[in-house]
Design brief:
The chain is α/β, with parallel strands linked by helices. It is built from 13 helices and eight strands. Strand 7, helix 12 and strand 8 form a beta-alpha-beta unit. Bound molecules: 2-phosphoglycolic acid (PGA).
């Protein structure tokens, strides 16, 4: 059975003290009122080592928002998958559209990052999604299919550790959410691609999250769709009450 997951993506927000305060608050509210799904917070690199010891591992998983495409060495300013794992983090977001667009991360670069994450026991939260012009040209299916090449060369065993996140770029941070029907349609398509590339069982067990202006007010109808297994949350992950509101969509 695949897992329902609500993951937060803090992006480049919160200084260390603010990040620690948010993690503590979340840990308190979710300890008092246990979630009905897996919860993950993905934070800036510098927060990881401080945040992992203050959250209850059984309730909140911790992840990075990126990692290097090289294992180690003379790559000034980069942070390796091994370093991320050494903080106690268990997840890493890879292929976010902001990384693809602003830092020119290609399918090949992401293939390397995914391999290094898995080699260091980090579960990738692998993001895919089309931009507005591609949606308007009805090209979303071919776009996500091409992006999935970074994970489809993995063995079935390795792929079973990957969490997919469909995030239409036109919905990220714009307040313009995909309708539950739009999300369901492409999530079902993505699952069919997983079945084609692996098999029906692997596809059934893959968690596919929706991301893009997901809020407490729309999470429930999105997550009610059979192929939407939770969300990857940006803006609404920055306030404990909003994030909890989305987590509670599974109650
Ligand atoms: P948003 O971001 O919820 O602020 O739209 C989602 C994401 O980029 O992961």
């Amino acid at each position: 059975m695949r897992k329902n997951i609500v993951a937060g993506n803090w992006k480049m927000n919160k200084n260390l003290q603010e990040g620690i305060a948010l993690a503590k608050e979340l840990n308190e509210v979710l300890t008092a009122d246990k979630p009905n799904c897996d919860v993950i917070i993905c934070t800036p690199f510098i927060h990881l080592a401080s945040v992992t010891p203050i959250v209850d591992k059984n309730i909140i998983g911790v992840g990075a928002e990126n990692c290097a495409d090289k294992a180690a060495g003379a790559y000034t300013g980069e942070v390796s998958a091994e370093m991320v794992a050494s903080t106690g983090a268990q997840y890493v977001i890879l292929g976010h559209s902001e990384r693809r667009a602003y830092y020119h991360e290609t399918v090949d670069i992401l293939t390397e990052k995914v391999k290094l994450a898995l080699a260091n026991n980090l579960q990738p939260i692998f993001c895919i999604g089309e931009v507005l012009e591609e949606r308007e040209a009805n090209k979303q299916n071919e776009v996500v299919k091409a992006q999935l090449a970074s994970v489809f060369s993995l063995s079935a065993e390795d792929f079973s550790k990957v969490i997919l996140a469909y995030e239409p770029v036109w919905a990220i941070g714009t307040g313009k959410t995909a309708t539950p029907e739009q999300a369901e349609e492409i999530h079902a398509y993505i699952r069919s691609l997983v079945a084609e590339n692996y098999n029906a069982e692997v596809a059934e067990n893959t968690s596919i999250l929706y991301g893009g202006s997901c809020k407490p007010t729309n999470a429930k109808e999105l997550f009610a769709k059979p192929n939407v297994d939770g969300g990857l949350i940006g803006g609404a992950a920055l306030k404990a009450a909003d994030f909890k509101g989305i987590i509670d969509a599974f109650k």
